[in-house]
Amino acid sequence: MSDFSPSNLNLPKLHSWRFHLIPSIYQFGAVNGFTSETYELLHKTNVKQPYRMTNKRHVNKQMQAIVRNIFILEFNGTLF
After folding, report:
1. How far apart are CA 70 and CA 50, in angstroms?
2. Fewer CB within a 10 Å sphere, N or C end of the chain?
């Protein structure tokens, strides 16, 4: 990678990948902390779906209420 990097891997993310992440993957296997799958799922269920349920006015307040209500229903076992 350093052959293709004009900064010679001096950027923190590239440095981390080259000198820390890749060797740790070889040594320990896949690193769970570097996956974005969990956060993508949370974004979909806690942001995208509730946004579609709003009337697009005062969105933050409506989305918070929707997420809170879904959590309460799931916690009580009345949803799903």
Report:
1. 10
2. C
d(CA 51, CA 66): 9
What whole-number distance in Å separates Cα of residue 68 and Cα of residue 25? 38
Number of structural domains found in the chain: 1
Contact 14, 5 (CB under 8 A): yes
| 64 domain residue, yes or no | yes
Question: For the whole model, what pTM was predicted?
Answer: 0.50
Residues 13-37 pLDDT 10s: 555 666 666 777 777 777 666 666 7
68 lies in some domain: yes
Residues 6+ apart with CB under 8 A from 59: 51
